[in-house]
Design brief:
The two termini are 53 Å apart. It is built from 4 helices and 8 strands. α3 runs antiparallel to α4. The chain has an 8-stranded antiparallel β-sheet. The chain has 194 residues and is α+β, with helices and mostly antiparallel strands. 32% of the residues lie in helices and 35% in strands. The longest helix has 24 residues.
């Protein structure tokens, strides 16, 4: 090798070393972005509830997902919206004026069961529960809602990703396969964890 080629080779090696050093150490690194948590709410339409003595009322429920658990159960916050006729029935039964009868009843730590199937759509079953309203026990009957089935999400940390995860959860239940990884990922998405 000639002296000139050796000098060029050493110069190139030095330049490559400088570029590597600058790209890894000297330049500021971009911060790791924390994903946003996904607020996922499901709706249950026309949920029946009973009041003693055997009065039946209906209302709509929303279920805000807070946690997925092994055992094919989710935990969430339920809001039961009373219709105007239901509020009037409660006012008559309790003796309170209509203005004091709440329009929404809320309860935390409510369990809902993920049912097996082909995942298109996935069924979530709300277990029966009792809500307290004006000193009376309002018992909500079992209700079901559908979660749209999806193959794969278009982006991570999104409603679409949760729907795809629920789809795969239902399929795993149906085929008696493990689902801990799916449950862990659902919890990561709803909490915004990496």
């Amino acid at each position: 090798m000639t002296k000139r080629v050796k000098q060029n080779l050493m110069l190139m090696t030095g330049l490559i070393g400088c570029v590597i050093f600058l790209s890894t150490n000297a330049l500021p690194q971009s911060e790791t972005l924390r994903p946003k948590r996904v607020n996922y709410t499901l709706s249950f339409s026309s949920v029946r509830a009973t009041l003693p003595p055997s009065k039946e009322i209906t209302g709509d429920c929303s279920y805000f997902l807070t946690q997925a658990l092994i055992g094919d159960v989710t935990i969430g916050v339920i809001t039961f919206s009373l219709s105007e006729p239901a509020r009037q029935t409660l006012a008559e039964l309790t003796g309170f004026p209509l203005a004091q009868v709440p329009t929404n009843l809320r309860q935390e730590n409510v369990a809902a069961e993920v049912l097996g199937g082909n995942g298109f759509p996935t069924t979530l079953r709300l277990r029966p529960l009792t809500l307290e309203v004006l000193g009376y026990a309002l018992t909500l009957t079992e209700a079901e809602t559908q979660i749209q089935g999806r193959e794969a999400p278009s982006e991570n940390y999104s409603t679409e990703e949760l729907e795809a995860l629920f789809t795969h959860w239902a399929i795993q239940i149906n085929t008696a396969r493990p689902r801990r990884g799916i449950i862990r990922r659902i919890n990561m998405v709803i909490r915004g964890e990496v």
